[in-house]
Each structure stands twice: as structure tokens, then as C-alpha cells.
Design goal:
- 17% of the residues are buried.
- The termini are far apart.
- It contains 1 helix and 9 strands; from the N terminus they run H-E-E-E-E-E-E-E-E-E.
- Strands 2, 4, 5, 6, 8 and 9 form a 6-stranded mixed β-sheet that branches. A 3-stranded antiparallel β-sheet has the order 1-3-7, with no helix packed on it.
- Strand 4 and strand 5 form a beta hairpin.
- 17% of the residues lie in helices and 46% in strands.
Length: 145
């Protein structure tokens, strides 16, 4: 009976030690994208989601609670645009940049020579921390006459 109790106590102590080591080694990040907005001017005095074919499109995301450097990856997708397959990423518009501390990260999209084709698009911004996706936000916008 005495040996049984000792074994149970040793097993319990081992379990507690293992759980403590696991809890201490786990890293929980609260890093996230606070907002994503689009506008027709760099300063974002007015937020908009409707643009003309010749407009430059500006997007801005806020990164919050960064414990270390993260990468912000931007992608533009043609959701419903004449002459394009639905939900097709637009080649050449992907961008990424590193952020070492909380703040804003921006994307500037100049119109193609012939102007933006009319339709619905979306901007996707993804926060990556050490190869792990921490957050993602999307913002839909329209190009109209």
C-alpha cells in the first residue's frame, strides 16, 4: 500500500512537471490586424470603396500587439471583373513588408495604362509571424464609371 502511494505521488509529480514545461514553452501571440481601409488619397481623410478607372487606390492596415517583427502580405484579387476569371489574384500586385512594432502598413495601387477594368475587387492583407498566419482581413472595392 505504501509503495502504491509513492508511485501515485511520483506519477502526479511527473505530470505536473510535464504540464509546467509545456505551458512555459508555448508562445501565444495576440498580434492582429486592427483595421483595413481603402481611400482615394494617401492621407485617408475620407475612406471610400468606389473608384474610377484612372484612380490610384490606397489601402492601409494597422498592426497591433506585435511582440516581434511580423510580415504583412498584400494581395489584390479580381472578384467579378469583365474579361477575368472570377476570384483571380492579379499578378504583379502582391507586396509584403516587415513591421517591427505596432503601426500602419500601406499599399498603393497605380492604375494600369488603360485604367482599372470595371468590376469588383478585394484586397487581402495577411499578418505572418515566424511562418505562422496570425490574422487576415479583406476589403472589397469597386471600380465604376
Amino acid at each position: 500500500m505504501h509503495q502504491r502511494r509513492i508511485r501515485m505521488l511520483l506519477l502526479l509529480a511527473g505530470t505536473i512537471v510535464a504540464l509546467t514545461i509545456t505551458a512555459c514553452s508555448a508562445s501565444v501571440s495576440t498580434a492582429h490586424i486592427g483595421s483595413l481601409k481603402t481611400g482615394s488619397e494617401k492621407g485617408f481623410t475620407t475612406e471610400t470603396t468606389t473608384f474610377g478607372p484612372g484612380d490610384t487606390i490606397y489601402a492601409q492596415a494597422t498592426a497591433e500587439n506585435l511582440p516581434n517583427t511580423v510580415t504583412m502580405k498584400w494581395q489584390v484579387v479580381a472578384e467579378a471583373v469583365a474579361g477575368q476569371q472570377p476570384n483571380t489574384p492579379i499578378p504583379g500586385l502582391d507586396q509584403s513588408s516587415d513591421m517591427a512594432s505596432d503601426g500602419t502598413n500601406s499599399l498603393s495601387l497605380s492604375p494600369p495604362t488603360a485604367g482599372w477594368p470595371l468590376g469588383t475587387y478585394k484586397i487581402i492583407v495577411t499578418m505572418v509571424d515566424g511562418g505562422t498566419q496570425r490574422d487576415q482581413k479583406t476589403k472589397q472595392f469597386t471600380v465604376a464609371e
